[in-house]
Every structure is written in structure tokens, then in C-alpha cells.
Amino acid sequence: IANEMPVALDGLAIIVHRSNPVKSLTMDQLRRIYIGQVTNWSQVGGSNSPIVVFSRDSNSGTYGFFQANVLKNQNWGKGVRFMPSTADELREVGKSEGGIAYGGVAYFKGDNRVKIIPVAAGNGAPVEPTEANVRSKKYPIWRYLYYYTNGKPTGETKRFIDFVLSPEGQSVVERVGYYSLK
Fold first, then answer.
1. What is the tens place of the pLDDT at every residue in 43-77?
2. N or C end: fewer C-beta atoms under 10 angstroms in the chain?
3. What is residue 74's DSSP assignment?
4. Which residues contact 23 (CB under 8 A, 6 or more apart)?
């Protein structure tokens, strides 16, 4: 019997090339971009240029979360380019002026090739994936990160998970760019 334990909080950031003039997107615009209904930045307030859509590949838990929570379980658009890692998404958007991608905010913080753009839920104000906004659930694309064990953890596994959940372990969570549970 699988045992699920939350170990961190994560905001899935939306990145575009640093030169992209788009200031924010709504959840509906994101969905429509990723299912292939919106294909030009001019349709969402940007320049008249094609959108180059990047996603994690289907081996990624982030892919499944994004499809369920942003695409609302609709199919990916036929032009989406699937990448084996978030680092690959970052690299591609960094060199593609029309690029867009998503991933854990920790991967994108401080990278000057891209910009993280705020996202609005419904008709609300656009929100950035900051720690405060993820903690308060104001940012619409947040999730817990989990460890899974086969049954209740014991021995070394239990000691490791206890460490991860301790103040010291949660400080490591913060240091690598995710948000602690506390």
C-alpha cells in the first residue's frame, strides 16, 4: 500500500524569452496555448510572432500535473515540443524568442535568458509564483511535492524522511529553491 508524504511546496512558473513583451497570462490563455487554440503572441497581447510551445515529456510528474490542472485534461496541441528535462525547456526558451514553457520555479529563478510571467486565475489579477503567493494559494499553479513509500516507512527510509521533514531538512528544501512546508 503506497504511503504519500508531502515534503515541499512548489509553484510551477511560466517562462518566456526575456525579450517577450507579454506581461502576464490567464489560466485560460495558458490552456488555449497548450492545446493549440492560441498560436500567435498577438492573440494574447504580444507581438505578431508564432508561439513556440515547450513541455516536459510524459515521463514527468510535472507533465501530468500541468495537463490535469492547466489543460483541464484536454489533449496537448499538435505543435507542442516535449523535452526530457526542465533544464532543456529553459535552454530552448532562452534561445527561442517565441518560446514558452513551465516548470518548478526553482529551475528558473535568476536566469537572465528568460522571464517568469505572472498568471491570473479567472478574471483576477496576475500573480507571481513567489513563496508568499504559493503559500497563500493565490498563485494558481501550485502543488505539493511528495515522497512515496511502499507501506509505512521504517529503518533508514524513516530516518531519511524524518530528516527531510525536520527544520534542517526543510532548510535544504528552501536552499534548492522550493518552499518548505512550515
1. 999 999 999 999 999 988 899 999 999 999 999 99
2. N
3. P
4. 45, 117, 118, 126
Closest CA to 100 of 114, 111, 110: 114
Rg (CA), the chain: 17
Cell numbers representing residue 10 in the block: 512548489
How many CB atoms lie under 10 A from the CB of residue 151?
9
Chain-centroid distance of CA 153 in Å reads 29
Give start and end residues of each alpha helix (H) in the chain. 27-34, 61-69, 86-95, 105-108, 131-135, 155-165, 167-175
Q: Is 27 buried (19+), middle (13-18) or exposed (0-12) by CB count in 10 A? A: middle
Residue where the block lists cell 522571464: 115
The mean predicted confidence, pLDDT, of the chain is 95
How far is Cα 155 from Cα 159, in angstroms, rounded to an integer?
Answer: 6
What would the pLDDT profile of 69-101 be if each residue is shown by its tens digit?
999 999 999 999 999 999 999 999 999 999 999
What lies within 8 Å, CB to CB, of 124 at 6+ separation is none
Which residues touch 32 (CB under 8 Å, ≥6 apart)?
38
Rounded distance, CA 96 to CA 28, Å? Answer: 23
pTM exceeding the 0.85 threshold for the entire prediction: yes
